[in-house]
Amino acid sequence: MKKEVLLDQMVDMMSTITEGTIRSSRIYYYVDPLKYPPTKLMRFILESIRINTGKYYKIKNIEPVIRLLTGRLYAKQTYNNSGTVSLDFYFTKKNYSQEKLISAISSANRASAEDPPFTRGSFLIDRENVSLNDVRTGKKVKYLRTQSERSDAVELEYLRDLNKKLKKSGAPVQLKIGNAIFEDVAEFIKNPDTNATADFIAIDSNAIKIPGTGISHKAPGFESYKNITSYVGGENATAKDVEDFLGAAESKWRQRLLYPSKGDDPLRPTSGFYRPTKKNKSRKIDLVYGQEGNRADYIVMGDFLIEKSGDITELVTAGEGRIYQYPEVPAQEYNPVFYSRFGSGGYKVEFSADELVELNKLFPELTADEFGKKLEEFGVSDIIIEQPNGIDTPIVISAKLSVRVFTIPQRRLPKKAEQI
Q1: CA-CA distance, 98 to 90, in Å (whole number)?
Q2: Lowest-confidence segment of 28-32, 254-258, 365-369, 411-415 by average pLDDT
Q3: What is the pLDDT of residues 343-381, one digit of tens each?
Q4: What is the Cα 175 distance to its own chain's centre?
């Protein structure tokens, strides 16, 4: 197969991750081997791998090289006083899938972890020839990644694995899940109802959905149950506890940006804000399984397994995985907690022109364009700059801060998160 065709196929297969932006608050970045490195640097990388592992790879054999580097390369940044960062590149001791290493990097950045598990045993790749210096914050680097673009990519892997095991067991089968038994289960599909809490639902040999089989699946070490903004507004406007938390979180984020502590920049790295959920059992059930009309029947945590016993085929989980069946409330460490952290793709805190003018006074030497770029470094987006009548120079009149708001299992709550 021609090298160009192979690379095109691999890019199509693997390009499920977004471009990384250099931020002073970040420590680690995933390095995408399909977009990095330039050929002139590949020799240094492969030579470092040879020295540290004893394995030798030729540049001309691109397929095994890409396979080798996928899920193994990451960059660690050091923040310089000049406002720039330096990046050193590392090769992991352990083999990871691309998605799992990106997930580990994302978690490490949120926790500001200096020694996360994926770094242990890693070796530095030729600092003199490969490391980067004086990279400005706010710069987008095409081969660095910090998060997945397709949030369902990992779930689709689990779905394929589940169906593969189900087929191997002789599907269609009589399938037991929890305390219930379902007839003629042919396979599971991704739930076509985008408003539903369940990720997967079973279908029979006629491709008809089987009621009561909706599974909300959580990968090992999962971060959250669901985004809670769906509880606010419209027909779901009864969730006062959610609305109260959103209001308190927005107030905290607004305060954090507009009124930083003395000597601090706005939005220094934070572990976010949280609030315990009500002790009411029915409320906890709603927050985990979803509300009536879009509720999941099961919460499955971990890897799927299929076990056969006579005529009954049972869906179970591997290792420390668990299956909860509605209305069973998850164990204490999985107790749902309201949580908000900095991050895109969720809720936006809007700032008015008056608030931004006051904030700009913290940086009197910056023009509106420079102040806008400063805001971008803090993670602020949708920045609008105009020159209103009666004002001599342009000002930033509008901006939004993206934050995430959801329910998370208590065990995933960062130690430094602030209760509100």
Answers
A1: 15
A2: 254-258
A3: 765 678 888 888 888 888 877 888 888 888 878 777 788
A4: 32
Sequential DSSP letters for 216-234? EEE-TT---SEEGGGGSSG
The rounded distance, in Å, linking the Cα atoms of 317 and 312 is 16
DSSP string of 132-197, one letter each residue? EEEEETT-EETTEESSBS-TTHHHHHHHHHHHHHHHHTTSSEEEEETTEEEEEE-EEEE-S-TT-S
Listed by start position, the domains of the chain span 3-145, 153-213+278-334, 249-273+336-419
Q: What are 79-93's pLDDT values in tens digits? A: 776 667 899 999 999
The mean of the pLDDT values for the chain is 81
Q: Classify strands 273-276 and 418-419 as parallel, antiparallel or unpaired.
A: parallel
How far apart, in whole angstroms, are the C-alpha atoms of residue 273 and residue 93?
34
| 47 in Cβ contact with 126 (< 8 Å) | yes
Q: What are phi and psi of 240, to 5 degrees?
A: -65, -35
**Enclosing H/E stretch for 128:** helix 127-130
Q: How many helices (H) and strands (E) does the chain have?
A: 10, 23
Q: Tell me what percent of the chain is helix, strand and coil, each rounded to the nearest 5.
A: 30, 30, 40
The encoded tokens of residue 376 equal 């971008």
**Can you state the angle between helices 3-14 and 62-69, rounded to 10 degrees?**
20
In this predicted structure, the answer to whether residue 152 has a pLDDT above a threshold of 70 is: no
DSSP, res 259: S
CA distances from 225 to 13, 219, 409 (A): 28, 11, 7
Cα(381)–Cα(18) distance, integer angstroms: 17
Relative to beta strand 123-124, strand 418-419 is unpaired
